From TrEMBL:
Homodimer. Its cofactor is Mn(2+); Mg(2+). This is 3-isopropylmalate dehydrogenase. GO terms for biological process: L-leucine biosynthetic process. InterPro entries: ICDH/IPMDH (IPR050501), IsoCit/isopropylmalate_DH_CS (IPR019818), IsoPropMal-DH-like_dom (IPR024084). The gene is leuB_1. Residues 6-356 form the Isopropylmalate dehydrogenase-like domain. It is an enzyme of class 1 (oxidoreductase). Its EC number is 1.1.1.85. The keyword Transferase does not apply.
Amino acid sequence: MTQTFEIAVFEGDGIGPEITGPTVNILAELARSSNSYGLSFTDAPAGAAHYAKTGESLPEASMAIARRADAILLSAMGLPDVRYDDGTEISPQIDLRKALTLFAGVRPVTVRAGQRTPLNMPDGKEIDFVLIRESTEGLFYTQGRGEVTKDEARETLLITREISEKLFKFAFALAKTRKEAGRGPGKVTCVDKANVFRAFAFFREMFDAEAAKHPDLIADHAYVDATALWMVQKPWDFDVMVTENMFGDILSDLGAGLMGGLGLAPSADIGTDNAVFQPCHGSAPDIAGQGVANPFAMILSGAMMLEWLGIRHDVEAMTSDGAKLRQAVEHVVAQGQILTRDLGGEAGTDAAAKAVIAALDLP
């Protein structure tokens, strides 16, 4: 009997609905063609526009949909002119991370042969690594609750054993999966600042304890400042990197820059029981409604969702379809003939999505 998975869909703000629609259509078509699994999509209202209309940014009904869903597909959220009374941005994606304890922020960085990149890539080199950002604590722990006086301001960095041990276990499991798939040597790099801060020495000690459990994998360390340098000089040397929340926030945008921009940057926030998949870019309200938004990062996030669901539920067809979808987007981008404006092309959202469908060559 075919198993059907419920997907909670947060269509987002600005260009969010424009890139969500084609992504959902592609995912539905893959499921139809496979005939080995099913997908049902449930809309979950949330975001800045919803807050402006109702006074709620993440209704309890939408949170309930997210909690029960097998996976959450979340588009770009937030609008610059819609904020809470304290001036902070509307960010349901962060609320979901905290409420569902989505501790592993997964940010893949891929540059294939022929793909445009700001780097001067040596012949035969490609970039294929994953940055894992702890997403629930670190320097984001006191978000919205920092202490500010006339003369000073304080934010608290928190690193806990409970979350860190789960994070490192996840990182080594991902490295093993990538190695088995032929996508990396099975190496995990702990990115920290353990030479200066006791909190990061604590972080590194827990990493080393988990590394000792995986003699078949490679474990090493790198300070965050050196990592930023090496991500530009030799990014092809990385496989899986794991780091604190703020460091990961910064380095993930550097990784997006290597690919040519946030329009190619998918992401996932994964916990023990739930996972959110969303593009790294913002809602770009200045181009909303014009049909020119880049859907690639959203589609790639959908591909990550399929692969995660396939591995989690042992459905080989989903894992395979996720890989096929990722490869289809990489093929379109590397070909360079149908690119959106942010990538130096002239294609609109619809044309870009259709190019991915053509590359899939579905029956």
